[in-house]
Amino acid sequence: EDMILIYISGFVAHIIPRKYLDKETEKEFIKELKIS
Predict the structure, then answer these.
(1) CA distance 19 to 34
(2) CA 34 → CA 1, 6, 14, 23, distances in Å?
(3) What are the DSSP calls for the chain, one per residue?
């Protein structure tokens, strides 16, 4: 179940253009993914 979540999270991360994420937002986003 966790692997599916990680796969989906990674997929979504690729969809979201990185230029819309500043460094802090990206750190928080990654932190949320790790907590999930």
Answers:
(1) 21
(2) 14, 9, 16, 17
(3) -HHHHHHHHHHHHHHS-GGG--HHHHHHHHHHHHH-
- 33 near 9, Cβ under 8 Å? yes
d(CA 36, CA 23): 20
Indicate the residue type of 22: D
Percent helix, strand and coil across the chain, each rounded to 5? 85, 0, 15
In the chain, the percentage of residues whose pLDDT exceeds 70 is 75
Q: How do residues 10-26 score in pLDDT, each as one tens digit?
A: 877 777 666 666 777 87
